[in-house]
């Protein structure tokens, strides 16, 4: 049992040592401010300015955390040439810009070490769940590749980008520089569909469900209580967890039931009070249950139809293995028992075991 606790403590050091790039380098500027001050990101910032104002607001918000894969001006020039268009025409296509920009922004801060430790892992983005490709890859995901000391990102459309510079620290996350613009599969169709949805439901945001954090709070206070231990854990962990689940995202959360936590405590020979007192371990374990990006049950099932899929979590360098067995979806060794609990900043799937990171 002590070995398990030690493993969790080591995992927590990975999380606490990764998110705080800002604590180590003491950055004073947000992602938006850093990019605006770098002449090689002028086209990127022009795109941010021309897109939905939510992008500029998010990248300027010092209270949230993001990872931005930032294309250089040369990368945008190559895209403009490939599309046989002009910079002016590209910047005028707000719907397409919204889709492409969302595909470059990852909820949560993922340092280069976390990216480099994730070969073959799918990485969710800020693009909403828009289904899968014919091959089963979620259209809103990237696949990380690591070979010969180089890191590449493969898009759902089959394009690739090389990471050329890393760990530009900001107060609200980190920037990694890439040499190509990331374009998801069916980008134009997605842009058209999303624009049509917003025109048809202009009050969609006002009518959206509550946040992931608020959903957990409501379940813990319901007549048939659930997620009470999960809520206590979130409240006892690093405050950034609660902030991100309240305001950040989009995220997919695999939420253990109260019974799952009771079983985990028994296995670790710990009391709930002892677990809740270990802030570092709680933070690491909770981060391991949170996936950047929104993945609905149908997308998860389609993605795992031909075998298991590894998905990046908010614990840098630690991935979850999602698979199917006997008609059920498995997350590591946990079974998904309820799906698609919608929230304003993502989605919740309920699982019957607490997921434990490994080192």
Describe the overall structure.
This protein is α+β, with helices and mostly antiparallel strands and 359 residues long. The protein has 2 domains: 17-200, Roll (FAS1 domain), CATH 2.30.180.10; 212-351, FAS1 domain (Roll). It contains 17 helices and 14 strands. The protein has a 7-stranded mixed beta sheet with strand order 2-1-7-6-5-4-3. β5 and β6 (160-170) form a beta hairpin. α11 (212-220) packs across α12. The chain is globular.
What's the structural blueprint in terms of helices and strands?
Elements (H helix, E strand, L loop, with lengths): L1 H17 L2 H5 L5 H6 L5 H9 L2 H8 L5 E6 L1 H10 L4 H6 L1 H9 L2 E3 L4 H5 L5 E3 L16 E7 L2 E5 L5 E11 L2 E6 L8 H14 L11 H9 L7 H9 L2 H9 L3 E6 L1 H11 L3 H6 L1 H10 L1 E3 L4 H7 L5 E4 L6 E7 L2 E4 L2 E10 L2 E6 L8
Parallel strand pairs: 1-7, 8-14
Antiparallel strand pairs: 1-2, 3-4, 4-5, 5-6, 6-7, 8-9, 10-11, 11-12, 12-13, 13-14
Helix pairs in contact: 1-16, 8-10, 11-12
Give a quick set of tags describing it.
359 residues; alpha+beta; FAS1 domain; 7-stranded mixed beta sheet; 17 helices; disordered N terminus
Query: Which percent range describes the beta-strand content?
Result: 15-25%
CATH architecture of the largest domain: Roll
CATH topology of the largest domain: FAS1 domain
Query: Ranges with pLDDT <50 over ≥5 residues?
Result: 1-24
Shape: globular
CATH domain class of the largest domain: Mainly Beta
Q: How much is the average pLDDT?
A: 90
Class derived from helix and strand content: alpha+beta
């Amino acid at each position: 049992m002590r070995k398990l606790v030690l493993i969790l403590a080591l995992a927590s050091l990975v999380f606490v040592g990764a998110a705080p790039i800002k604590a180590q380098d003491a950055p004073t500027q947000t992602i938006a401010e850093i990019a605006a001050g770098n002449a090689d990101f002028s086209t990127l910032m022009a795109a941010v300015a021309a897109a939905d104002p939510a992008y500029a607001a998010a990248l300027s918000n010092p209270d949230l955390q993001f990872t931005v894969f930032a294309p250089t001006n040369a990368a945008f020039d190559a895209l403009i040439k490939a599309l046989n268009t002009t910079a002016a025409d590209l910047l005028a296509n707000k719907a397409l810009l919204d889709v492409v920009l969302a595909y470059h922004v990852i909820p949560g801060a993922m340092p280069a070490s976390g990216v480099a430790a994730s070969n073959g892992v799918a990485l969710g983005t800020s693009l909403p769940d828009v289904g899968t490709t014919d091959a089963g890859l979620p259209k809103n995901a990237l696949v990380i590749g690591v070979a010969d000391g180089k890191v590449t990102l493969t898009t759902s459309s089959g394009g690739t980008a090389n990471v050329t510079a890393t760990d530009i620290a900001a107060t609200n996350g980190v920037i990694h520089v890439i040499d190509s613009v990331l374009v998801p599969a069916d980008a134009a169709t997605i842009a058209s569909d999303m624009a049509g949805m917003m025109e048809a439901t202009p009050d969609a945001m006002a009518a959206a469900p509550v946040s992931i954090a608020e959903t957990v709070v409501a379940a813990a206070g319901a007549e048939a209580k659930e997620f009470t231990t999960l809520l206590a854990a979130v409240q006892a962990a690093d405050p950034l967890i609660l902030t991100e689940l309240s305001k950040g995202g989009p995220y997919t959360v695999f939420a253990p039931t109260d019974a799952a936590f009771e079983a985990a405590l028994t296995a670790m020979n710990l009391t709930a009070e002892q677990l809740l007192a270990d802030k570092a371990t709680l933070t690491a374990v909770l981060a391991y249950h949170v996936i950047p990006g929104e993945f609905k049950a149908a997308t998860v099932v389609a993605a795992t139809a031909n075998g298991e899929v590894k998905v990046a979590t908010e614990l840098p360098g630690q991935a979850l293995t999602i698979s199917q067995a006997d008609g059920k979806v498995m997350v590591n060794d946990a079974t998904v028992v309820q799906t698609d609990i919608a929230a304003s900043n993502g989605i919740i799937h309920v699982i019957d075991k607490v997921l434990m990171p490994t080192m």
